[in-house]
Records
---
Amino acid sequence: MMAFFGFFAWIYLSPLNLFFGPWLGVFPPVPLLIVNTAIYVPLIAYTVRKWLRTMQKRKSGPAAGIDVVEPGKAKPEPGDEWGIAKREYSDSEKSQVIGSKSDIRHPPLDLEDTFFVKTPDLDAGEPIFEEEELKRRAMVRSRVTSGAWSRKNRSSRSVGSLQSPEIAQHGRSTRSRIPVGEIQSIDLPASVVAAVTRTGKFSDENHLKITESDLRERIFSGKTPLTILLVIDVSMSIKGSLKHIRKIIQRIEDETRGSKDRVGLIAFKDSGAIEVQAPTTNWNRLYRALLKLRISGLTPLAEGLMKSLQTVKRERMRNRGIQPLVVLLSDFAPNIPLEQSAGPGHPRYTPVRDIIKSTRILKKNDVPVVPINVNRRQAKWSSILKRPYHQALELATHLRMKKEGYSNAIETILSVPAFRKEFGAYLVAKIAGSRALLCSEVTRADSVIDTLLEAAANTPSIQVKNLKQADAYLK
């Protein structure tokens, strides 16, 4: 209403009327009316926009935050009648979807009662690997004796990739130390030397006595085998990322074939996940398993994580000393929840909350998870914030958390639709205590296995100076 009356006041009192038309207070001719209108419309639009921004930034005083534009029926709140509301506008209606497909208000299809009972059909869809290529690679004999198959040294073939603990019974003894806790392996020569040092010279009548304080244990240096579980997304959404998946798997093969590292394969799509190949050192079996992978259907990411936990538990029943490592290859765009989350009494559609739940269960069971995002377009975050992939996502989350006033990174990601859609890899890494990787970072690395182990062990933290630098850069 104010803009309407202001328009007529501008027409009659415009300074242009003094130079190109009649006197002030007289209706101008049509050409001058058009010029006045063209000037008034953007001017009033800018003024209103500027006023709204200024009022939204106010923390106190009349109409602070302009809490007068809430959708739906108008309901008075404390302070509205006096014009001193203290909070900014926020949508009070929560989304019916908590997931990466934030624009979907219902599941992408009506989930029937038998949907989760059906086993995913691995034979449906486009194959990830070409049959002729896998056959050619399967026929090649592993040149373990010469060490030419991979970049590993000849002396490191037939061993694992993970550095053993000092007290583990792997490798060769390098030194001794005073035992800490239960003694694993007694170093007899070092114990005798310690006893002689304590007692000094001894004769035939004065025999040497070794006490508990003289005991020393051996320290080993060696490598222990890994149990790598490749959890691969074979849904339709990764169709544009197949070459990255092929390259990563080929690099893992180059560094593990011929060693004692075992590799297993789990695929997930549609209603659940399937263990295509149990952990094995025989890559010919893995070739046959990879040949079964075909892309189609939906993305039950949480089911893939839970399936990997089942496999690890089974392997630990056979050998409690295994060192598992779950490598999750996906574009992290889940749209199917866990079966128990889609049952009766669970009206919310929660695929992203379910991957949080699944990752926490793996973390509780001491199963390290390294997420690899095969969507190459996610490199835009590294380009914008000038940081590696994980650090860029962490920095963006902390900046948004600071802006919105949240106290938790996970809460921030779930509250921002754009973050729910693109920050799935960081979400898994944050909970698992690892580092999210982009496919290009993995393929460029000198050693993929070393990169995965570093990502599983190291969690970078944001420093205050990085927040200040990025905040200034974005402004």
---
Amino acid sequence: MSNPQFRGAAGLALLLLCTANFLDAMDVSTIGVALPAIQAELGMRATSLQWAVSAYVLGYGGFLLLGGRVADIFGHRRVFLWSLAIFAAASIAGGFVDSGPTLIAARLIKGIAAAFTAPAALALLLAVFGEGPQRAKALGLFASTGAAGFVLGMVLGGAATLISWRATLVMGAPVAILTLLLAPIALPLDARRTGPRPGFDWAGAITITPGLLLFVFGITNAASAGWADIFTWGSLVAAIVLILGFLAIEARHKDPMVPLAMFRRARLTHANIVGFLYQGAYIGFQFTATLYYQDVYGWSAFATGFCFAGAGAFVMFLAPRFATLAQNRGTTGFMTAGVGLQAISYIFWVLSVGHIDPILLVILSQIPLGLGYAMTFPSIQVAALADIEEDKSGLASGMFFAAFQIGGGVVLAATSAVFSGAPAFGWEPYSAAVAFVATLAVLITLIAALGPKPSSAADRYQAAE
């Protein structure tokens, strides 16, 4: 943030938007290491304990498309401030919960608030920084704080748990409140509309929002209860019906919530497909490696979380640079190289686990993993938001974030199924699960390589400008 291009009001705006993005991402993983302490105090059953984590993802993933579209219609600044205020209030309320249901409710509300904050914040960033190198650098910083928040959430959660598990819920509130106090000074006012406000697509909202909620719920439930559970397949069937209904509505609506033409934008669609799969592969690896480090090596929650700090450092310091390079030289190559490095990390882990020193295993697997994440995440973000009109920037941001959140849930459920079913085939479960992730990462590398490329030097120059 010391870059002279980011001084003044624009620099403060970027700082505030990156801070909100960090908080939203951090809360996805920060509570995971506190689950044993939560179970001990609140007496939650293991089957309901997972929802302390999953409720946030449920609200976040389920409401992102709605949040993005609401921000486009009612104002990015207005939606950002209101949703961040709700996030702060829910964080404070979480420190006073006295039962499992109230804890899950607080987490759900925080997730819903984040689903409105994240796309509004990214749309505001696009409004503050016009096309060109400044936007590329700003997107890089925004991407680095979001990715670092997610990766470092386990580390910060482990440190907060040393005080109290309640600190993992409350610790974001002071930062959110400070951001709210400074935001009116730095964030641009919402543009005054010269014509009538677009009609709100209520039919689309009441089909896609519960459709995504049920889809995320079904996938999450499958990880714990299995695919044969009635709540799993029942939710997924209902989700498919609602999503198909949503597509039919959008094809006919005058002011659709998600114009179907958005899916015909090659760069946006390709970026979201890669993001869906690559984030899911990372979540699957993190899930399996976390279990292995705690169950086999016997490491503490804090030590296990700290294992991922190296990747977080790579992302925090290198993502802004890679965003600029991707903007200038094309995103497809950096996506491909980044996912390829992650595939190398997963393959190395499978081949080396149990054969080399544990500390060496962590260090040598985190280097390509962190470097690959730092290359891939900002490249996907730059590609997804290229050539997006301002009145659709919130929606495009919501689609981008939704791909990451839902992809994480889908691939995690598949990884959990491989992990649980491996012993029946005589496979070691940890290696089998990471081998699945590694195979998927190789496939993602091929998909990334097939992405759109600048057709000429003039196109690359235009992207850089």
---
Amino acid sequence: MQISALEGQRVAIWGFGREGQAALDSIRKQLPKLPLTLFCSEAEAVGARARLDDRLDIRTAVDEAELTRFDIVIKSPGISPYAAPAVGAALHGTRFIGGSALWFAEHAAKAARGQVICVTGTKGKSTVSALIAHLLRAAGKRTALAGNIGLPLLSLLDATPEPAYWVIELSSYQTGEALNPDVAVVLNLFPEHLDWHGSEERYYADKLALVTQANPRALVLNAGDARLRAVATAAGACIWFDNAAGWHLHADKVFRGERQVLDLRGLPLPGRHNGLNLCAALATIEALGLDAVALAAHAASFVPLPHRLQRLGVRDGIEYINDSISTTPHASVAALDCFAGRRMAIIVGGFDRGLDWSVFVERIRAKPPLLVITQGQNGPRIHDRIEPMARAGRLTLLAAEDLTAAVAKAQHVLGNEGLLLLSPGAPSFPRYTDYTERGRHFAKLAGFDSNAIGAIAGLGVA
């Protein structure tokens, strides 16, 4: 649906974070007189009222009856359409869309438009999106980097001149809104966001909508993921990574088929999972018809994203690693593997979404670190799974009330030597607004400038 199609409709915006603000700005540019209702929190309402928009009705409470008054509700991505009050209003005919849907419709209507690369996956999508944009810019291509990575698509709707490429990160909340991308990239699938999707099966279906519903021209998929192998024939030509014929890893080397292209050592991409992220990015460059082998060396100048295995530095003999983006047990396992053999403490736990922590427990059993500290809502559940190993003397296991206490306990056990890894494997709320606030708090507790670690390089058009 294009923005012009909202004319004459009863329209509301639900949520007034970055996405809601971008939606309002975009609608006002095209339809300055369209009456709109905004459903938002009390805190968000302060900023909304400051806009002095006399055609914006601001409400700080929402229910099913209110939502059914509207033909179209443009909702923020974090609001689930599968839960009350949205699900009830939808049964009465209210249509829920996101800002991404408006952008894709507007983009499709352009006479001259850049190619669109959509990237999703349970883990790694931000890094891969940023890597693709970095490599395209290294090739001299004007490239936009936006989406779930931290910049709403609608905020770049009027970008002039039109970028040659749009690199768009999509969460599972947004994949169903993609329309005719030139390349769809799916990295991996693990259970996540089950509270939003309602079930593991629906999460996979929503994530794979980028393949099954978006009508991509070409696919870039991970050959190491069984679910992705099963859906590979659903749409378009497919380029695989993590297989011997394409871009893959062997030890610390990146190969294209039998040709060695890069040595991962010395690159700002720690861990095997980041090596695979680079393989995915290079396969995408190849899918666009560019010389990925020639561009691969530019990975050396990539600026890593914050809160993703981010080395903060050393204080009093302890090295601090901020992996606050880690919201699944698989991510915590990947983080442990990056620092295998080190004298290490890891802090895990957060909001409990009911995920199975067996993969983490098995990794601890195989290669126990010096110390595991559990915290957060699911901390006791993780603690109970690891406790038999601690009783057997294989590692030290401690419980902490919060992150402040966890850091203090880790510092006490490590003394003046070792590595402290924050890789929670769980969401940050309700104690923090998001993973970035959690990461900044960790940096502050470790003695670093919390305001100096949060910027994502390369967002926008360049």
---
Amino acid sequence: MPILPRSFVMKPLIAVVGSTGTGKSKLAVDLASRFNGEIINGDAMQMYCGLPIITNQIPVEERNGIPHHLISCVKLEEQPWWVGRFKNECLRLIDEIHGRGKLPILVGGTHYYTQPVLFKNQLVGDDPTAAEGDGDRDDSESSAKWPILDAPTDVLLQKLREVDPVMADRWHPNEPRKIRRSLEIYFQTGRPASEVYAEQQRLKQGQLRFPTTVFWVHSEKQTLNDRLEKRVDAMVEQGLMGEAKRMSDYVQEKKAQGVPVDQTRGVWVSIGYKELAPYFEALSSGSLSETGLESLKRSCVESVKSATRQYANAQIKFIRTKLCKALVDAGATDRLYLLDSTDVESWTQSITEPSELIVRALLDDTPAPDPKSLSELAHTVLGAIETEPQSESTFMTKCFTCDICHKTMQGEDQWQIHIKGGVHKRTLRRAAKLAARDEYLRRQQEAPKEEDGVST
């Protein structure tokens, strides 16, 4: 019987994470080419077909003949994939790739999709109560069983307060899908979602599924922002407007047929469509002059750039808080390697050489370098994460409502920032002045009555 290579027996996995615009796809192709790998897409938007520009799919000519899975495989009219479905399909593909004696490489920026693949029984993302294997649920089925799930958000939130005040305190009133999901869990299980989640937390089963190396491709903020702005301009030149218009036309066509399109999910929330929607609405209605349309178009493109920068920040925040915390819990912080892609001209020295050295160490089961030793940026960022105090659990985060300012904040940190902020203090002073004025007017109105009483 032939002796199998150690790397084949150990079933390793490479994960490539990072914000948009840092070079994740290029690194994945480089590693797959070097180590006989296959790539699994971990970007929720890149799963949609027919929209390569708006979803930033790696061009076929740049894939170097490497098989890419779960990319351009979902049609516009199909239901969006939930996290559980993605996880199950991804694990199936990883098993198949291992079966072919090849190295699976998971790459993508939808980190709440990829993290449940990396860790056993990991509840992550914005809805931590979504149980594993729950990715194929259909909203229409739940609505048929429990019609209240289609009620307005304020009704859902009130019902959730009755059955699960812990989760009701956690969600912001502007998070209808999360409120709905928490209530749905209660109906499905007969138990509060907070209780279900707390029980799973107690199991402490957050270990890595495979011998894994995680590469975090990262760039300094200003350089990344400049890169993202240029990339949006390039996307416009390559046909971004055309793809967004096809999406807009699809929505209008379905609307004419009396078929509503849920634009709060799936590719309809992708950056590049929703920001350009006002332009296409004005174009369709003929409400603006040609000059007005051009001005609106420029404004919408600027919104795409702004949203892209914000998304990059959110991706980095997820890695720093959720991914790093999961690695700490799993005792696997030495599996995370930050690769500095700030200077693309030094890609070979900064990315290719260290990543190949680290993958070889994983496959040969030999010592790998200290993650902080790879670059000055790695030393700074990873060192800062190590010294950061553990933030409050995502699950335990509560919402606080300021009755004076009529605003709702998530978490103690945001609440403290608000009550110490200038806006809140000015509102308090203004409220105090109004209260004093009302009291003065009240007394003025009562004074004549008292005088009348005396004279009588």
